[in-house]
Amino acid sequence: MTLCEYKPGLEGIPAAQSSVSYVDGQLGILEYRGIRIEELAEKSTFLETSYLLIWGVLPTKEELEAFEHEIRYHRRIKYRIRDMMKCFPESGHPMDALQASAAALGLFYSRRDLHNPAYIRGAVVRLLAKIPTMVAAFQLMRKGNDPVQPRDDLGYSANFLYMLNEQEPDPLTARIFDICLTLHAEHTMNASTFSSRVTASTLTDPYAVMASAVGTLGGPLHGGANEEVISMLEEIGSVENVRPFLDDRLERKAKIMGFGHRVYKVKDPRATILQYLVQQLFESFGHDKYYDIAVELEKAVEEKLGQKGIYPNVDFYSGLVYRKMGIPIDLFTPIFAIARVAGWLAHWKEQIEENRIYRPTQVYTGLHEASYIPIEQR
Ligand code: CMC
Fold first, then answer.
1. Which H helix or E strand runs over 77?
2. End-to-end distance of the chain based on CA atoms, in angstroms?
3. CA-based angle 41:46:49, to the nearest 5?
4. Is residue 249 in contact with ligand 1, taking CB distance under 6 Å?
5. How far apart are CA 114 and CA 208, in angstroms?
C-alpha cells in the first residue's frame, strides 16, 4: 500500500517521532530538548548538552560530575585499536579512519544488551570519550608521531585540543571550541541521523550505528561542506573577486558551499553564533582576510539568492573558526562527528526504546516479465 507520493530526498516526510530537537526553518529557531541553542551555547558545556540530549533532562551537579568523571576515565583507546590505526594509509581521509575505528570498537565491546541501562550508559560514555582520542591519534600518527595520551586534568574540549596539537590550548580557544561542539551536537532528521536511526532499528550494536552515521556525515552535501567552504574562500582569494566568482558559479549552476538548507529558509542560528565566535577569535589572535571574503560573499549571495531562502548554514563560518585554531582542513568534518555523536546517541536510544525496523517502500520504475537473453546474443 502506498500512502503518499514519492518525494525525492524524502523532503517533508516524517521519518520518526522524536523529542530530541526542534527546528523552525522560517523563524531560524533550533532547540535541544526545548532549550534554545543560543542559551545552551552561552551557558552550557558540550558534555552537559550531551547529557541533556541523550537523557532528555539537564543533569544535577552530582549527575554531571559523575558523567564527566566516567568520560574522563574512558578516554584512552586500546593499544590494538591504535596499532590498527597505525596501519591506515596516512593519505587517507580522517573521516574514513574514524568510521573504521568507530566500527572496530564494536569488536571489543561486542556484548549486545540493549535492554540493560548499564550497557546503554557504557556505550554512550565510551563513544563520547574515545572518538576524540581516535581523531587526535590518527592526526598525529599520519604525521609520523606517536599519539598523545589524554590528560585527566583537562576538560573535554581542552583535552582534545591538547591531544591534537601536543600543547595545552588557552582557555578562550578551548571554550570557543566547546561551544562549536555544542552547536554541532544535534540537528533533527538530517541524513546522518536518519542513517543512525535506520541502522539502530535493526538492533545492531551502537558502534555499528555510529560508524554508519560517520560514513553518511562525510559527504560534501552534509558535514563535508565545511572543508569545501575553506577551499572556496581560498579560491576566491580577495574581496574584489567575490562577485565575479559568484556570478561564474551561478552561471554554471554550481552550488555555493556553506549556503542553503533543506529546512532553514533564513540564516541558520548556528551560523550567527559561529560568526560571533570567529570575531572573538580574531579580536584576540589577529584578523584573517578570509573573514572579509566570507562576509562579502554572504552579502552577495543574499542579494542574488535571498529571495530563494538561500542563506549561510552551519558550515559557512565553522571552518573559519577551526582554521584560526590551526586545525587542518580535513579534520573539520571529524570534529563535526565528535560533536554529532551526542545527537546520534540520543536518536539511537530513542529508536531502540520504541523500535520498529525501517522498511520503507519504493516506486518501481523497471521492467516486468523481461526475458533472459543468452550472453552470445546480447
Ligand atoms: N548555492 C546555490 N544555489 C543553491 C544552493 C547553494 N548552496 N543551495 C540551494 N540552492 C538552490 C538550488 O539550485 C535550487 O534552485 P532551483 O530551485 O532554482 O533549481 C534550490 O536552491 C533548492 O536547492 P536544492 O539543492 O534542491 O535543496 P536541497 O534541500 O535538496 O539541498 C543542500 C539542501 C544543503 C544540500 C543545498 O542547499 C546544498 O547543496 N548546499 C551546499 C552544500 C552545503 O553547504 N551543505 C551543508 C548543509 S548544512 C549542514 C549539514 O547538513 O551537514
1. none
2. 37
3. 80
4. no
5. 14
* Helix (H), strand (E) at residue 30: strand 29-32
Query: Is 261 in the active site?
Result: yes
The CA 305 to ligand 1 mean position distance, Å, reads 11
What phi-psi label fits residue 166: left (phi over 0), alpha (psi between -120 and 50 degrees) or beta?
Answer: left
Domains of the chain: 18-220+331-353 (1.10.580.10), 225-324 (1.10.230.10)
**pTM value?**
0.94
Angle at 366 between CA 363 and CA 368, to 5 degrees: 115
Measured by CA distance, the residue closest to atom 24 of ligand 1 is 262
The residue type of 122 is G
- How far does the centroid of ligand 1 lie from the alpha carbon of residue 217, in Å? 16
pLDDT digits (tens, 9 = 90+) for 130-178: 999 999 999 999 999 999 999 999 999 999 999 999 999 999 999 999 9
3 state SS of 322: helix
Asked if 315 is an active-site residue, the reply is yes
Q: Are 313 and 259 in contact (CB under 8 A)?
A: yes
